[in-house]
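Input sequence (398 aa), recorded before submission:
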Amino acid sequence: MFQTAEIFFALCLVQITTAQTFVSNERIPVIVISDLYSPAQDVGDNIDLINAYILPKIDLKAVLLDCHNEFRKKVALNVGKGLYPDKDGPRDPGYSAVEQLNYIFDRNIPYGIGPFTPMKSKEDKMEYISAYENKGLDLLKETLENAEEPVIIVSFGSLRILAVANNRYPKLLKSKVKELHISAGTSYNHPNFLEWNVALDTLAFVSVVESGLPINLYPCAAGKVKKVDESKFNAFVKDNNNTYYILSSLDFVNQLPHNIKHYIQYAVNRETKPGYLAMLDSAFHSDNSVFNRTHHSWETAIWMQVSRLKLVMRANMRANGEYKILTMDEVCNNDIVLEERLRPAFVDIRESGLFSYEFSEKGKINIYEREDAYKYEEWINKAIPDFYISLTKEKLGK
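Predicted structure, token format:
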């Protein structure tokens, strides 16, 4: 048994060493668009942003805040189809989360706020908005102009910033955007479920889908709902073409450095208070049970695709059920990889924001697909704790 494991490790080490010669120094320039709020609306947005600072190979260039006027009110009632009335406002753009992560990771990532109101047409350049609401658009333009190579943009909100930017600077986006990775929509051609990120600005979504830009689309909501899930909201159901899963517990956060624990607790408790940076310097003395909670996630698939990460079961550890998130150069030939891919498809988009797709090698837009949503949820729950515990210690040295 010992000799078998020793041979396996030696073979794997040779494979990793060879692969790293070619790819280990690669850096992937990324711009993040997120509907972050303060106080947090979806805690997942705050937790998700950690990925941009910590994942291997990611070179974060800017964070653009996609916020919406209705949610800046104490009670958001006129939110539109596909959105829920938010009675826990008012909410401001979540720049405090960017400031906290800049402070924690000793970075100075620029950020800017986008337009607060929906587009009036698919061609709208929104030249009537305030200078404040232009900050995100100006930052996007500046970042792309200064980029030495085409940039990947990941979007976890509406597509308003992207749509307006493309209407203003189409040649710039065509030349400097390598890929768009968009978290939005409903899978399996569902005829009437309008997913949240689409509903935030349907014209923006349609405008981008029709733009001809290199799009990778990751549906959030399930269009194929099993009988056992019929009572659930589509966005909280998993299938093989959407990205949703439940993390059974955030309890592993208790093993992260104190400043990360403060950051996540601040989001979980939906706090807004002075000293949101100063508290990051102190020891964490709160009750550890604050993280004993389930977590709904839609974002992991995008980050794994952009970072070229694989979810695997190590072949020599099957009996112990060891599951890992690995870079491509760390995966050994005998590892069992849970397949995820981006499949080309023809997409038919309607003015309502609803869309259907048909897989075809000649398709112009890629749709996310995973081998087995239920197996994915099982494996990712076992792999994520060790992955983030190791990465945060490596990055922060604590």
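Checked by second reader. Residues 240 and 373 are 5 Å apart (CA to CA).
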